[in-house]
């Protein structure tokens, strides 16, 4: 179903192109809200960082859902990993799954690091992907074994820290944003932000082992998709 952009932007004083550009800057690059405000001001667009924050809340999830809907088929090898994050003084766990190409499949912020939490992640992944993987790669956390035996008994499960660098490396952009944002304020905020952030990163992800012309072509295609998702013309 095609998105109704007129209804999406109804009642907003700023045009869709300005809103979409502000949201793109915030989720695409490791920038604070105040830095995005300053970058827009340099272009003659006077808007407060609080307005940009509200735009991110309202439009970020909508853009991310549309990007996910248009996403090409993901890989059949899932790399899963979890990392500790501190939210409001309490330790939580950020669970993330990526495929063999580094495309983020999903993220889930949870307060637990046990079999129950691992099962919740696997159920979410299977529902979103509509299938089970050919291979699942994790570290040696035993919770993954218990979850896999229950939910994906026929899937090959490889447990080795060295094999899971792809998932571990996928946490690095989150760490950078966490520092810039001076930590996440709540589990809900972290979940909403990262769900959008990772989909935008997927869209604008460019292969490193390719030619410069191919990277430029990939980037042009990503910008064209973003413009269509946001309902604005390509600059």
UniProtKB/TrEMBL annotation:
Record has Ribosomal protein as a keyword: no
Alphabetized Pfam families for the sequence: DDE_Tnp_IS240
Keyword field contains DNA-binding: yes
Keywords attached to this entry: DNA recombination, DNA-binding, Transposition
DDE domain: residues covered: 76-206
NCBIfam families, per database record: transpos_IS6
UniProt protein name: IS6 family transposase
Lineage, opening ranks: Bacteria, Pseudomonadati, Pseudomonadota, Alphaproteobacteria, Rhodobacterales
